[in-house]
Specification:
The protein has 253 residues and is an alpha+beta fold. It has 2 domains: 6-83 and 225-235, Phosphorylase Kinase, domain 1 (2-Layer Sandwich); 85-206, ATP-grasp fold, B domain (D-amino Acid Aminotransferase, Chain A, domain 1, 2-Layer Sandwich), CATH 3.30.470.20. Strands 8, 9, 10, 11, 12 and 13 form a 6-stranded antiparallel beta sheet that branches. It has a 5-stranded antiparallel beta sheet with strand order 1-2-3-7-6. A two-stranded antiparallel ribbon has the order 4-5. 27% of the residues lie in helices and 33% in strands.
Length: 253
């Protein structure tokens, strides 16, 4: 087999050149990181679960007309995606106060927000992914005002979809992060949801117990991250109901 060319490696994924021009193969690693990669571990099976969960969410978004970079799943750890020009921003949608917004604004964790709040963060690990305003984004040319308006619209549609998915299986969508890229057609472009959507990029709480089912389990040493992600996948029907641990998951095709 010919050796594939690595295009990019991040904390949780690797991108390889795809089989056709304009495509990448996205590989999901088992690495877990927190606090800007100051805390690290390898969680066996995490990449498999995130691959399947991201596939589930991306396909669901496509069905309701939200464009994404996802093309198809290739195997247990890889998916074929469109090559896009990534906007260097993380778009965070918050429904419930948790994490940094609680710390910044002194709002008790678990407080329902009056409406979904959308925040932009500059994607720069060296700076700790700082919160930025629309004024910063426009001034430094990271995105146009039209792009920002479109990103907000996309983020709210993703929020509606994910909230409904999670509510149906007894999980509260507290907040989530998406990344967005541009696909060009001549001088014109459209924005698509890119990167991944998984428990790595969402805060998910069990509605009845408040149990955390996301990366906060790893951040705060609350138990097994593999078990938490497996529970999300099981409830959404990505895993058979009799699977209890993600070390060597058996996934539904």
């Amino acid at each position: 087999m010919a050796r594939r060319k690595k295009v990019y490696e991040g904390k949780a994924k690797i991108l390889y050149e795809g089989p056709e021009p304009g495509t990448f193969v996205q590989y999901f690693k088992d690495d877990a990181t927190a606090y800007n990669a100051e805390k690290r571990d390898v969680i066996e099976g995490k990449g498999v679960l995130n691959n399947r969960l991201s596939e589930f969410f991306m396909k669901g978004l496509a069905e309701i007309g939200v464009p994404t970079h996802f093309l198809k799943r290739l195997n247990m750890r890889e998916q074929l995606i469109r090559q896009v020009e990534m906007i260097p921003l993380e778009v965070v949608v918050r429904n419930i106060a948790a994490g940094s917004i609680s710390q910044r604004l002194g709002i008790a964790e678990g407080t329902a927000l009056p409406r979904p709040i959308i925040e932009f963060y500059l994607k720069d690990d060296a700076l700790g992914d700082p919160l930025v305003s629309e004024e910063h984004i426009a001034a430094f040319g990271w995105a146009t005002q039209q792009d920002m308006d479109d990103m907000v619209a996309l983020a709210l549609r993703v929020n509606d979809f994910l909230s409904g998915c999670m509510l149906g299986v007894g999980i509260r969508l507290v907040d989530f992060k998406i990344e967005i890229g541009r696909i060009w057609d001549g001088d014109y472009h459209r924005l698509v949801v890119a990167d991944e959507i998984s428990p790595d990029s969402c805060r998910l709480w069990d509605i009845e117990s408040g149990q955390k089912l996301d990366k906060d389990v790893f951040r705060r040493d609350l138990g097994s991250l593999a078990d938490a992600y497996t529970e999300v996948a099981r409830r959404l029907g990505v895993l058979p109901s009799n699977v209890t641990h993600a070390a060597k998951p058996t996934l539904i095709n």
